[in-house]
Amino acid sequence: MSNLSETAQSILLPTNEMSTAEVHDYIEILKPRVMSLVVFTGFVGLVVAPGHLHPVLAAVAVLCIAVGAGAAGAVNMWYDRDIDAVMRRTAARPLPAGRMLPGEALGFGVVLAVGAVLIMALATNWVAAGLLALTIAFYVIVYTIWLKRRTPHNIVIGGAAGAFPPLIGWAAVTGDIGWGAAALFAVIFFWTPPHFWALALSRTAEYAAAGVPMLPVVAGVRETKRQMLLYTLLLWPASLAPWVLGVASAFYGGGALALSALFTACAVRVSRDDGDRAARLMFGFSLLYLLLIFSLLLVDHAGVRLARGGRF
Fold first, then answer.
1. Cα(49)–Cα(113) distance, integer angstroms
2. pLDDT tens, 102-148?
3. What DSSP designation does 99 have?
4. Residue ranges of the domains in the chain?
5. Cys-Cys crosslink for 270: which of 35, 147, 163, 278, Cβ 3.0 to 4.6 Å?
6. Nearest CA to 42 among 156, 143, 167, 146?
7. Helix and strand tally (H, E) in the chain?
8. Does domain 22-177 have CATH number 3.90.190.10?
9. What is the DSSP letter of 91?
10. What is the pLDDT of residues 75-84, one digit of tens each?
11. For residues 58 and 44, is the Cβ–Cβ distance under 8 A?
12. What whole-number distance in Å separates Cα of residue 68 and Cα of residue 70?
């Protein structure tokens, strides 16, 4: 925890540095691209949950998920600014580039996190608010501070943080967590490792230079590709679980099966490719995969409700 102590001291000690951060810098530390997928999966969890939430309260709940995700991203950038400066992909971010002071990012993230949790509790219920707080804490403390720099299992365990949003959306409507919500969690949980390792395969040297023990750095490329294939196979039953549990119909089940087969095919192609082109393509498809899986859930839900003469 020495790194945390050093960074905390750098905030508390006086500094003559001046911030040059602009509005777009504050937006950037919220990790808007990551946030967009998080918000979408949280929205789908809210929509497919049994029950009904007033549209205004539903919009507030989705906004709280977005702000909470952004808050976690801001604190993550505060803590990781040293390794971000080493990696080409992240060196231009506001903190390593020197446009924003560490205290600004940390304070911004903490204020947003507290506000998002409190408003979620007032707008919906304490179960959803508690899950939102747990998600932020898990991403910051368990993944960013504890796991990321210590173990190649960082993405496997820490990736659970990205799987919580559908549970939060579901709980905002129902006040609890059902098996259907757990199924949505499982889809993202098993999707995260092959998604992130596909990116890591093309950034192995950068992670090694930054001292981050990603799987390709510690276990090698061959083992990483084997693990990626394994997780795409685990996605087959996970992606079909919403259909099996009655959250979605056979329409969704068929689409999920086809998408999972394509994802596995990408992993097979990666395992046979000596370069990183197939891995980059798989990373791109992995984003499309999750978007389409959750879009299928939305379309399926809308179709079932319309067939029954109900409202979406």
1. 25
2. 999 999 999 999 999 999 999 999 999 999 999 999 999 999 999 99
3. S
4. 22-177, 178-312
5. 278
6. 167
7. 16, 0
8. no
9. T
10. 999 999 999 9
11. no
12. 5
